[in-house]
Amino acid sequence: MGAPHDVVIIGAGFGGVGMAITLKRAGVDDVVVLERAETLGGTWRDNTYPGAACDVPSHLYSFSFAPKTDWSRRFPPQREILGYLEDCAREHGVLPHIRFGADVRGARFDEHAAVWRVDTSVGEIAARVLVSACGQLNRPVVPEIEGSAQFRGATFHSARWDHDVDLRGKRVAVIGTGASAVQIVPSLAGRVAHLDLYQRTPPYVIGKPDRAYRLWERTVLGAFPGVHTLSRAKTYAQYESRAVGFVVNPKLMGFMRRRFLRRLAEQVPDVELRRRLVPDYPMGCKRVLISDDYYPALTRPDVDLVTDPIARVTEHGVVTADGTERPADVIVHATGFAATDFLAPMRIEGRDGRELGAEWRNGAQAHLGITVAGFPNLFLLYGPYTNLGHNSIIYMLESQFRYVSACVRAMRRHGLASIEVRPRVQERFVRAMRRRLSGSVWEAGCASWYQSADGTVVSNWPGFTFAYRRATRRPDPRHFRVRRAA
């Protein structure tokens, strides 16, 4: 197994690559990144469905320490984002630190040695510090539908798109109306023979101010770094202001809803179709989506919106509760992810034999979404209470990078074998999150992927991102139990 590494990171997406870069810049060179796939990229490697793109502007959906001035569009497509992350890993020397094809099955904290024993598909690896950068959107959910095994056509999840299936001339059933479906449907409409979109709950879809950057704009951005910094700051301020409606005064979302209804009426003239597209829950309770071509696609004669519940799947199609069978050659599940399971299905054992899944059976908990009582030297990126509904997750990740890096450097500087957040500190933080979330739009009476099985919101940060940056500016030594190295 060899000597323990200073830091082992699980996952080579934005979180893992950014964490490795930050540690290297801080002088921590003994870093290993474990990636189960054969390439890096995380969600931007996995989601290659037609129309896949970001819903955060490019100047904000990128690392502050690695600005890119030649994005092709304001909202970049999947391939360009993946290329950016690959460039970051290569230019900052992270690629040699990544072990591809290393699937992490679990990890156990060895209290005597104060190291994590990480069980992987390529053998056991020891780490003084373990960082999970698995993200929240990495485990696709495919609903159990009666008869699915009988279906003779192709079927796959949007995050596992089968590009070998030729969709031309096919009848396609898309199940789900989340962020992926809003991009998939317009991309397939007009290319396939017919498309049936199965909707359980209509989303709020607002306009997408997207456009290609002109050559002169890219030239100016590249020549004058201050212009890029100003563009990033302006975009950040615009998106940050939306937190007022999400967590400060949800009643303000009523204004946004009225704008949504006016735009929907403009794009969908048919009264009956429009009625089925109006959500019956407060705006913002579920993820608000952006698209300029989703609603126009639904008005096409070769696209049908199906709102009757799915009863079963047959050999040749989908049957709804009213008994209607609609033929299908391909079924696409745009049905989201197991977002609140966090580190599952890995088995993580901490101090005194504690198992993280059991500790979190009533909902995930972590101080600042990063550290967990009972699990020394374990840090989470994009953990509970760190997701956003209004701004760029990259900003939150960078806050976490700094916090984790400071903890690692403090351990080295003071000769600490382990640090562990105090239970009381974690409990106080979780109580504060629950109190603040109770007044947010996310707890306004709808079911969403932000919630755990019992309906508790455990994913989202109930405040401004700059407040999170301030809270994670530096680790407070009083928050931790420490054990010095022998």
TrEMBL record:
InterPro entries: FAD-bind_Monooxygenase_sf, FAD/NAD-bd_sf. It comes from the Bacteria. It is an enzyme of class 1 (oxidoreductase). One of its GO terms (molecular function) is 4-hydroxyacetophenone monooxygenase activity. Its EC number is 1.14.13.84. The keyword Oxidoreductase applies. Keywords: Monooxygenase, Oxidoreductase. PANTHER family: FAD_NAD(P)-BINDING DOMAIN-CONTAINING PROTEIN-RELATED, L-ORNITHINE N(5)-MONOOXYGENASE-RELATED. This is 4-hydroxyacetophenone monooxygenase. The gene is hapE_4.
